[in-house]
Amino acid sequence: MRHANILSGLILGGLALITWWWVIPLGIDQGPEAVMSPRLVPNLTLFFIMGLSAMLVIQNLRAPSDESNKAIVISRAELFSLFKHGVVFGLALAMHALGWSPLDGLMLLLGSLWVLGERRPWLLLLMPTALVLLTWLVFYRLLGSTLG
User: Fold this and answer.
1) How many domains does the chain have?
2) Which of 62 and 66 is assigned the larger pLDDT?
């Protein structure tokens, strides 16, 4: 488990670093002078993630070595689950690229729930509906934003 934690911390920290250095500057404008930058919250979040990743790596590097679990074993079921989640994410991303903004979020929510094994129709209907309505209420009505 120690090696898995070190690897997870390095990957998560690297992804956060790439997002901070490349994705945020390309995707979020700097904002006007004398106004809080729209990049502030994503940057703070990424610094928090990078700090937690560094703590995970350092803590597991300092921990005593456990000889019983050197190899990281990934089963076929886990790889298949990763593939299914990747397909759902890819479909949602393709729908977003085509401009189907309400449907891409719905695809991501419903597809993820379905892949995770949820089959109760009332939950498959209620969870995305509540999330979309809550998002609409907070961002459009309460904050007056247009999200786009």
Assistant:
1) 2
2) 62
